[in-house]
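hey so i finally got around to running the thing on that chain from the lab meeting. sorry it took forever, my laptop kept dying and i had to restart like 3 times. anyway pasting the input first so we r on the same page abt which one it is
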Amino acid sequence: MATDKILIIGANGQIGSALLPYLRALYGEEQVIAADIRRPTTVDSRFELLDASDAQALAALVRRLDITQIYHLAAILSANGEADPLGTWDINTRTFLNVLEVARTQGVQKVFFPSSIAVFGPNVNREAADQFSYLAPTTTYGLSKAACENWAAYYFHRYGLDIRSLRYPGIISHETLPGGGTTDYAVDIFHKAVLQETFTCFLKQGTVLPMIYMEDALLATLQLMEAPASFVRIRTSYNLQGFSCSPEAIVSEIRNYFPKFKIIYAPDFRQAIADSWPRRVDDIHARNDWGWKARFQLDAMTVKMLTSLEQRYGVTSVLSGSSSYAV
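ok and heres what got predicted. didnt touch it at all, straight out
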């Protein structure tokens, strides 16, 4: 592991900001380089300013740093993407194709890119979306991810490039604020609870979607990337399931610690997006091929989120029993 040199593109985003310290703890500070189109708010000596749509700049960076693995995380997400469909398609697909070509020509050994449950459409079995479901996405984000999955398989079969991918469900994390995804309500809701603010939910009651806690998402990513190549039998993207829940299920868990927490339901255009996605995905291939198993369910994830955000905001801990919030 110490000989690998890893580049994380999109290191400032939700996944990147959590993955960066995770990989540095495993590989070493000097072995993992962060890159993004904007500089981070904190000083990072191993940060590189990079526009991934510039293939020449990417190739030069990979050569200069002797990169052996690339995690390509940069993308415009589902809800934000609908405001500029053509721009979203261009950025999401062009940057990935740049990564594939640079990896192929510069001898990069492994590439990771995140796909999404957004690749599914309303025709899918919403109770347990199969790994090999017909993909008919209804958003530009989903269209771009489905296309990138097929490009990944193409580069693997034609050029032997080792590309690995996960279809992430909604990722819940405390490291960053919501970034324009349809499942981001499940992040923002915890911030509002800790700050004792009323939460306005852009999805309606009963909207069940698959979710995963960030720690599990990182574990799955590393398990996949460290698995022997012969174990990776799917070269588009693996289904990944953590747990499934609705807004009211999260509210119920939060009220165990913040009994006065209030929510208002005000569905907007994101409801139609959520209605086209599955309530659960079948990740049996990830479990059978490389041993995936989620550790966090809704109850344990809620405790972790509330504890972490209480520390972030300097709030007296509800979970320690010393808070004045209890009824």
